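Human: Cast an eye over this sequence-structure pair and say how the chain folds.
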Amino acid sequence: MSTVNPLASRWTDAERRALRRRLLAWYTKNRRDLAWRRTRDPYRIWVAEVMLQQTQVPTALPYYVRFLKRFPTVGALARATDQAVLKVWQGLGYYRRALNLHEAARLVVRDHGGRVPDDPQALARLPGVGRYTCGAVLSIAFGRRLAALDANAVRVIARWLAVREATDAGATRAGLWRAAETLVPDKTPGDWNQAVMELGSRVCSPRQPNCRSCPVRGLCLAFARNLQEKIPARRARRPIPHIQVGAGIVWRRGRILLCKRRADAMLGGLWEFPGGKIRPGESAEECIRRELREECDLAVTVGRHLLDVTHAYSHLRVTLRCYHCRSARGRAKALGCDATRWVRPERIADYPLPGADVRILEAITRAARK
């Protein structure tokens, strides 16, 4: 496999200076007025960068505003409970980001006096802080000369260099990081990193890039070779599995059973209507009865079907087949979960729920109004 050469071997120093000058001038004129660009507070920049992982700007923006209204400082976040953090994050997805950010805030208070460290090694030791987050926060908030390579920046630099190898391959990605580091200027490194990402978001898009509007197209090897639609290349992905799950809305004396997912599981810390994966040859009703025994040591009678909910995650699709159930007696034990709780329907919305369970709750509420 060929490797990605540093930019120094592709361009002259004069060409690199021209690239920086043209892109930064474009960014100054065309940058979006986003909330996290109006501050140099490293905490607020950090929150934004965590939210923007795997999430588009329009989706993240209202969550960013709500999150900082509730947790305006590192200390406020550190003092919060996991449940409060997850509730504010609800709907944004990738909940491990929120839990890592929460734990990192506690460590910043404990080990760094409540100040986000400006040292790359110290920041990188915090939970959830990878190479991209470290580079973005430190370059933007502290002016550290570090690269920040997100999906947009990967695509932009791969096109600039006409990289034909799969950009999600380890060797290629390492070469792109080396290339990115050669471009970061000594002055305004944060503006530079944001300019590259802004170009990827608004001009150098994954499909049908608007090359005619690109301020640096004259320095882009993919454009010169008419390869922009073929770059970046990615390795073939496996088909996304689709699993069927039985979910029980278990009633007792006007309350519904919620179970808290294990902290180390997918969607850990969130509350859900109990259930599990339907086994081959098993009906949804049989699955619900079995899962309630295994998860809560609870015998239930499965009643009428409420609805089916299909939800897509990054690595799988899940269809929840939801049924009303009754449980007359017995304590719900936390055998396959971290906690159980009987909750009045009107109070369930107070709990942090996965997206699919929010839709189940909406169906329960609609049915109750009829």
Q: What stands out?
A: Residues 265 and 337 are 10 Å apart (CA to CA). Residues 7-224 form a domain with the Endonuclease III; domain 1 fold (CATH 1.10.340.30). Residues 13-30 form the longest helix (18 residues).
